[in-house]
Write a structure and sequence with these properties.
The chain is an alpha+beta fold and 76 residues long. It has 3 helices and 2 strands, in the order E-E-H-H-H. It has a two-stranded antiparallel sheet.
Length: 76
């Protein structure tokens, strides 16, 4: 599969397996695992690290948003 990462300055296409993509999306992925995936895909490890960190940040924001909602008034 092709993972396309886009920034204001550039677009990068990374040939990645489905298992590698799934692993990148796991919040428990380690720096060494990211480096291994980057090496096997022939891309910059810093790029994949930033991608994984963005995913973690978004997931945490969603948790915070969900936990801040008070739905009690909807069940009265």
């Amino acid at each position: 599969m092709i993972l396309t990462l886009r920034s204001l300055a550039d677009t990068v296409h990374i040939d990645i397996t489905a298992d590698q993509f799934k692993r990148l999306r796991d919040p428990q992925i380690t720096h060494d695992e990211i480096c291994d995936i980057a090496a096997s895909c022939g891309c910059d490890a810093a790029l994949l690290k930033d991608y994984a960190e963005d995913l973690k940040r978004v997931a945490q924001e969603m948790i915070e948003i969900d936990s801040s909602c008070d739905y009690t008034d909807h069940f009265s």
